[in-house]
# Entry
Amino acid sequence: MNTTIAAISTNNLGIGAINIIRVSGPEAVDIVSKIFSNKKFSQAPSHTIHYGFITTEKEKIDEVLVMLMRAPKTYTKEDVVEINCHGGSITANKILELLYDNGAVPAEPGEFTKRAFLNGRINLLEAESIEDLLEAKNENARKMAMNGLSGKTTTLIQELREKMVELLANIEVNIDYPEYIDELQITKENISPVLKEIKNKLTKIVEESQNGQFIKNGITIAIIGRPNVGKSSLLNALLEEDKAIVTDISGTTRDIVEGEILYKGINLKFIDTAGIRETNDIVEKIGVQKSLAMKQKADITILVLNNNEPLTQEEKELLKSIENQKAIIFINKIDLEPKLETLATSKKIIKGSTLTKNGIEELKQEIINIFSLEDMSYKDLTYLSNTRQISLAKQALQNIDHVIEENKKDIPVDMLAIELREAWENLGQIIGEAYEDELVDNIFKRFCLGK
Amino acid sequence: MKYDIIVVGGGHAGIEASHIAAFKGHKTLLITMNIKNIGDMPCNPSIGGTAKGIIVREVDALGGIMGRVADISHFQIKMLNNSKGPAVRSLRAQADKTTYPKNMLKALENTPNLSILEGTVEDLILEKNKVKGVVLQDGQKILADAVILTTGTYLKANILIGSENTPSGPHGEKRSNYLSDNLKKYGFTIQRLKTGTPQRIKASSIDFSKMQPEYGDNTYWTFSFDNPPTYKINEQQKCYLIYTNENTHKIILDNLDKSAMYGGYVTGIGPRYCPSIEDKLVRFKDKERHQLFLEPESLYYDEWYLQGFSTSMPRDIQEKMVHSLSGLENAVISKYAYAIEYDAIDPLQIYPSLETKVIENLYTAGQINGTSGYEEAAGQGLMAGINASLKLEGKDPLILKRNDAYIGVLIDDLVTKGTQEPYRMLTSRAEFRLILRHDNADLRLREYAHQVGSITEKQYQNYQNRQKNIQLGEEYLKETKLKITPEIKEIFENNQKEVPNITESLYNLLKRPEITMDFLEKIIPIPIDDQTKEELEIQIKYEGYIKKTYKEVEKMKKLEEKMIPKDMNYQNVKNLASEARQKLEKIRPISLGQAARISGVNPSDIAILSVYLKKEYNKNE
# Structure
């Protein structure tokens, strides 16, 4: 890591009023000094901002603010300089070029974070992750390890672990000190309520966390239905613009059309799909397949039905197919004569018209409701904030589910302990507090044994 | 006088070390302070116990003699945790404190290449950091190519009873005065540890009628994989369970300041799993009673061991405490409880082979390494003996991994984490305990033993036969189908078991948690021997869990197989956290796996180290 790297750290399309170019490495200050008009800069104290121009011998490139951050208190723990220049990709690229001419090398994707990690700035909890890290393509995958947790989440996880370790220590004591019959003996029966309680709490954390992800990343909503029930009109009504082609001819939308809105602070990303029906038209067939795939990928599905027509066979199957996922049914064209039968579904039904915009607001609101997001965006956010953490919590939940399942059979407690311990370790990894002798320490803290 | 290997100390570690070295053909000398004390059990009168019983099986599988001798020297044996799952089953025998050492001495005397000498070793002969022999108290020098120190609790030992502090080894034996100072001089870090032992009571003074008897098992068991049982089930002796009471607690709490522990007379660190009774009362105020066990020490003298009543109270208080117990109102205490403090080395200064990092060809095993327990000592002694031999033979050491044996867990813990208290093995320390079972110790270890030449041809054959039996047994269970006739259906129903479909192989039936081998035998004869049945039942029934454990093992192996070169210079690895660098330099782990288990070495340090190793050592890969 003896090289000095540089890259544009704001999004590379150059959209926005300013761009930030980040330089990191042992020569960061020297290299920037060579192209920066402010001559006091190279001797300035750490964590200061400097005004001046980026210049070549021939011309002034841009008027900039330059931030000087000396090692070790920086993102990479190396000397870091950040140049705030004007927006647009041309200026930024020009400056970057100058930096390269003066000795910096282009940063590989994620290299700043990689350095932060290797320099001990970020404490990755799993050694194995290094391999992923070195190979990871996108910045998000790398940022995973850095996001902190709210104090409240940590407490919740700690409480759960406390419950688990209590149980585990008890099981271990029963095993290591079988002659101590005065200690509580863990049995199939007395373990079960505790497991249930752990399961419930953990489930809540996982669910809220997943919903939390929606606040951060938005919700993807697939609009499905038979051709010509008004999917594209619904999309347009939701987006309030004419994005999709709306015609009276069935099957107009043969590809995926999408659009985003910000509703109550949450990004809703709608995807209009090709109508779903049996078809021989090859182009349309591809569209239909894409639609079904989209439905799988989306966080929630809106099934659009026509108030003016009875259910077709395909629609009956669609109704069935959404039963086990998050979905809303939108019955369109309520201004027309009702010919649709009563639906056998557990899903929420909203009636409206894309023409009169009836029911559109209600539909948006229902999406938010389903993810209980309105509550969450106001209260202290207590969810796990990255995918790694959520996946660990999910693994722990799976472990607990399996323990509960196995406990119903005649599986000895010792076996149950194996997976319970796994769940406990998974949670430990989330908060980074697991240490190897934690369990043994707990045994002796909690029980009175020995010769 | 010159030997290949000298073993210092005739306790459970020294016995195994000297026996295996001699067995492997090396001219071996065992030096002990008192020949009569070879194989002595200064504390509890039992061999085995949870986790420890599995270690004894492992010692046996690897060619050690603890199991064999225990089998012919006990008067009660039982399988612990039978109901709690196959991984945690473990044997415990009440060994006779008279016959066990006698049989042990006989075994050693019958070992070719092994000599025994009475004497006290006070110094080592060194040549450029390589051990060349030992110096006895009288100045006599004895040369050897390798030395194994198994000095137990004898280094600068002090016995504590109340405020009395007497320089002495266990039960009045001599102690070693200078050896630990000399070790310190050579560069070892010496730590002071403490342990204790409870009272011995005269049998004739005990009213057993007020106590709850505890019996041995009605099944025959042996530690050894090679020898049949020699005892008779109905001749087993009883132990007894009793409880402390309110009065006992009052006596102890009223006199707390008189105990060595609470009076502040002890400097050593005592083990948490072996607290004194006063410790138990102070730490667990709400407990109304504590369990105690009375165990006979021998059939040849009438002392009983009062397990659970370890204390450092003065004698007069001990009298009152004992007399407050139901059935012991008139008890005569033949030996008072005492605490013992002794010197040990820091186990971070030894390699996983048990060779010390400070002095070449010097090995240490047992309590000197900071452990506690006869079985832990035997396991280390055996490995030190095997590895010292291998070294002299110019071969690589045998290093058992955490997934190979409890012995592997024990040594890895010691040399990786060190210990601040005498280390006792617990099943919870073994993350892969499901595959480190009592029943499969031979299957896990005999192949290694064969490779390093620590077992006889006969022992190896026994293992091969067992493997064959298991294979045949498995085939039999797969091929034999149970046809569900109305009569058989009824048996299932009467036992509240789900009735299987028409025909099913015994193998598949055994996969169901509620169907046991015993149950099937009520319906259909299974011509397989008991040992093989046990093995197969576990393998079949818990297949899913076992597979899962192996998956975890594979994960660990990935790091375990990344070896760190012996000449690794941690100063060259940039960006290591300074605590990690210090620890790595001190411990010098042999693999990334071991490095990862060092406390204070974080995953990011491992990542940095891994990148460095890749860059520096595998440039061509």
Q: What stands out?
A: Residues 2-194+342-428 of chain B form a domain with the FAD/NAD(P)-binding domain fold (CATH 3.50.50.60). The mean pLDDT of chain B is 92.
